[in-house]
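Re-run with default settings, no changes from the original entry. Doing this only to confirm the output is reproducible before filing.
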Amino acid sequence: MRELGRRRIGARDGPGGRKKGLQTILTAEVAAEIEELIGPEASGALDFEALETALRQQALELAARAVERWLNADTSDGAHPTLPCPCGEQARYAGRRPKWLQCVLGTLRFERAYYHCARCQTGFCPRDRELGLEAGSLSPAVRRMVGTVGALVSFQEGSELLDELAGVALDAKQVERTAERLGREIAQAEQQNVTAEPPPAPTMYLGLDGTGVPMRASELAGRQGKQPDGSAKTREVKLVTVWTAELRDDNGAPVRDPGSVSYSAAIESAATHDTDQQLAPFAQRVEREARRRGFDHARRRVVLGDGAPWIWNLVDELFPGAIQIVDLYHAKGRLWDVAKAIYGAGTDLAEQWAKQRRDELDTGEIDALLKALQLHAPSNEEARKCLDYVTRNRQRMRYPELRAQGLCIASGVVEAGCKVAIGTRLKRAGMHWTVAGANAIIALRCSRLSGRFDDFWQRPPTTQNSTATPSR
């Protein structure tokens, strides 16, 4: 379409600077073109917003018809009488079959060659694979849109955003199915495509943590949890985060480098037994992420965690020699829990006791801290657990020495990762997940947050849609 006019809509004209109406501003030629598209009665009644919306819809429909003609004009996909079937036999050409396709321009009727195998009684359309349409009736661009909204908001909100912003009408269930299928493809690609990078900085950090996600009752049968009756409402998502921190704040403390953080997570086991022939699933995930980011070749490797035994068992196995640090703020939180248990929440005595213990932690006076905990351990369960916690991790709490080496001593990046990568999307009110559904959306979200979403779409359609089923 030609330029919509020689003057900007809303421009002032004339001696008095009065805004001219739409029909006056537009040239007669362009006005005629608009009337041809949406009709003379409609064009006269519409305001600017309604006009641009109507014109956009008409332009999309015109483009959709053009693409439809272009797609259907190419019949070369049926040039061969037979093609190899995945079962090993030859599938025979069986004519052309239609498929209704939802693309960003609208709905298209797409005809393509169909091949049928007499042996396995399945069929396929070569052009579906060529164009990335094996996964269903959504074009790659629409699937990408669905992946974006599915990673960010609920499926219902995603459906509404697609309709309002892009004019793509998909109900919430279709958004859910498409986003989860895409998440599974991304999770599969995460395992298969591990290109090792050189370490981007002399010191690299790796953080490990876990956070609970609300699950459907069927996913919790027989599992122990933290409810008063011993039952569970959640399953733990384990997260690995890798980043660098070469920048310094005004006090000289290391600061996370922008754009350096990557995430990988799933509901999966981290436990490896002596008799196991391979690493636990989450340990394999950590190993992949470390290799992908170049962590295992960094000059200084630092691992931060909250002090849970499973973290250090995994680190000892995968990264012997790495510097291990218990997150300072998590350790201080444990001390505050002890103070509340001894003196009561909100009391001055609790505040004073906690401050003194935190100061001892900051200054490296671990022996004094242990003595204070030993005093209360016989009569207080929280003090006893914290005493064991500090005793086990004291070599990971050498905070003055670690600060002097210019190292991060707090895992704020990991804590934020649990909230940003997991909590913000999967722990909203009323949400209850299956393990498969949660893992799919986690993979989708981690891919976007780690800057790998675009990389996935650069791969061939056959890789993206490897989970698709054959046409029948």
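The chain has 19 helices and 13 strands. Residues 105 and 274 are 56 Å apart (CA to CA).
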